[in-house]
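Standup notes
- HV: blocked on the assembly model, inputs below
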Amino acid sequence: MKKYLIPGLFTLVIVAVIIFAVRAVSNTSNDSKPEDSQPPTVTLSDQDKKDLRVGQTTGPADAKVVLTEFSDMQCPACKFYETTIREIRAEYKDQVLFVFKHFPLAPSPHKNAQLAAIAIESAAVQGKFWEMHDLMYDKQEDWAEVDNPKVKYTEYAGQVGMNTDQFKKDYDSETGKDAIKRDKDFGTRLKLKGTPSFFIDGVDFKTTGDPGALKAAIKQAVEQAAK
Amino acid sequence: MPEAKQHKHPWTIWAFLGLSIVGLFDSILLTLEHFTRRGLPCSLTGGCERVLTSKWSEIFGIPTAAFGILFYLVVLYLVIHALTHREALPVKLLLVWGAIGFMSSVWLVGLQAFVIRAWCQYCLLSALSSTLIFVTAIVHWRGSEFIKLEVKK
């Protein structure tokens, strides 16, 4: 047993040093990002707060708690948060208004993000925004890097029960282009760090990479609103 | 066997040591990223982000990078064991282990090239260090075969 103790201890020490180095490196690399080192300087006006309630929504229009997400359909981190957002949408469907705002990071790094935004806006014309939104997140890997995503989007449109001819017409005429641009400009003015970005009742929610924190914040906001 | 004794800590042992430290650093970084998702500096190209959030970032619910930690940890332990006890490295074990690491790397690089179609440089670094570990194992094995022959003479 003793034979393995000394090399084992040496190995442990080396691993500890490596872990320490990894933590130091990952902290430095995050600190060096300008958006992290600068506190947000944007103060939201009352109009901004009203605008954060406008977009593609689900939930009661007069809800006391409003969760706004600036999202990019092609962003893997948005997909990562999607499971939790769906839980929030289901659990608090009577208390929380969920607002989807576009923030497509196209053409780089997400080459199909703008077209994806147009696809879900085209679905909204037929009242299938959320069905299309959910299906496209589920299938994100299948359409993210394809050269002509229209084929995939049309297939999904059919799957959620849309008239595909109408969908193609709306998609080709870039339905919702203005709304997407308005959201994107709004997000840029709010100095969003990236996607997803959340606002709860007009207050910037700092994402930590843990979707559970978002859910906890919503739970707290709902409990407070009920008092 | 004085000749054999001189070859007990050849340069390959230091290569194993260096490569396993680099590999451990890299795979610990990737595993940490898997749990915190703070975004690694290469995320701007979207490559890392796509690879590290793909369904192959986990195998049986365990982060793929964690298998890397296990792989390099074993190499590191074998090297330190040999160094502290002034023993020769278990050549055949390193060969088999290195081959497992190499084949896993080929598979993971293949996934990046043909399935995910995005590159994550941290994953490529790990593929490189495990490949070099395998190459070093072959060199070490051939070297030790050579030593045996020398001794026999």
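- HV (later): unblocked. Residues 32-40 of chain A have pLDDT under 50 and may be disordered. The first strand of chain A starts at residue 56 and ends at 58.
- Next: hand off to the docking folks.
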